[in-house]
Design a protein that fits this description.
Elements: H1 21-71, H2 108-111, H3 136-140, E1 150-153, E2 190-194, E3 204-205, E4 213-214, E5 225-230, E6 235-239, E7 258-259, H4 265-274
Parallel strand pairs: 1-3
Antiparallel strand pairs: 1-2, 2-5, 4-7, 5-6
Length: 286
């Protein structure tokens, strides 16, 4: 008679065995790489979403600006500089800084200013979702962000004393647009942009077109670019080419003014869309 059937498994390759240390390390490394790729893709998607949100904000402001002009016989909203911007007749009131000044967080400076009623007093439209730049003092005070990220092209609108002679003293020889009808190529003149937090201050974005030097600097929140809206109502994001245009978005990081005479590509791109020579497109205050 045959003996009892043995249930023992043969000692061969079918035998189960645990992972070796090398296999564990390789597996862990692969998981880490995949997680990194996933995180990078997620971060990129979030950045793109914030960029689209910012574009929409700019477009909403541009539409409000256009409707304001229609309601005021084609006269454009005031665009005042320095302390003169602390008035509700301006497109937005207040001057931002890195201190604990109330202008930094006072939403009424936006909702009660000239364009506030044209955006249903929605204060969030005035801030880029990527803009969380704060000073250490402001963070210690528990702030989450400042109220405004956007500025208006200094060549657009009445700037008070700076334009009382019919041109902008910052750019003599170039057109100051006082009325909507004076902008002969509205798709080529920007109105709003998101500005670097170091220079956003009064919301008056000015540079000397004839001198390759940043006085005010555009932001670079959006994968190295800034969002603009134009006088025809469209909005777009423009990516910068020069490292000098993209300092960190933090207090006192811009190092203004910045001489860009060695590579003025970004500066020239903005200058070409700020204004035109007054010889080619004369403006009228009335």
């Amino acid at each position: 008679m045959n003996g009892p059937i043995s249930m023992a498994q043969p000692m061969n390759s079918a035998r189960r065995r645990g992972f070796t240390l090398l296999e564990l390390l390789v597996t862990t490394g692969i998981i880490g790489i995949l997680a990194g790729l996933l995180l990078s893709a997620l971060t990129g998607s979030q950045a793109k979403a914030r960029g689209l949100f910012c574009q929409n904000n700019n477009k909403e402001l541009a539409m409000a600006w256009l409707i304001y002009a229609d309601d005021h016989s084609q006269r454009l909203a005031y665009n005042l500089a320095d302390s003169a911007a602390r008035t509700n007749i301006n497109w937005a009131a207040g001057v931002l800084d890195w201190e604990l000044s109330s202008d930094n967080t006072n939403l009424a400076n936006l909702t009660e200013a000239a364009l506030g009623a044209y955006v249903a007093k929605a204060s969030t439209i005035y801030r880029c979702p990527s803009d969380i730049a704060l000073s250490g003092l402001q963070r210690a005070a528990g702030w989450a962000n400042r109220a405004r990220s956007y500025s208006m092209n200094a060549s657009v609108g009445d700037a008070g004393e700076l334009t009382s002679a019919g041109y902008n003293t910052n750019n003599p020889g170039y057109t100051q647009f006082f009325t909507l009808t004076s902008i002969t190529a509205p798709a080529g003149i920007f109105v709003f942009l998101d500005e670097h937090p170091d220079s956003v201050s009064d919301g008056y974005f000015v540079n000397h077109v004839y001198r390759p030097e940043w006085i005010r600097l555009p932001a670079s929140w959006h994968l190295g670019g800034a969002t603009f809206s134009f006088a025809d109502g469209h909005a777009e994001t423009h990516l910068w080419k020069c490292a000098s245009t993209m300092p960190p978005s933090s207090p006192d990081a811009a190092g203004l003014p910045i001489d860009v005479s060695s590579d003025p590509r970004d500066f020239d791109w903005i200058g070409d869309r700020m204004t035109v020579s007054s010889w080619s497109a004369p403006s009228s205050r009335y």
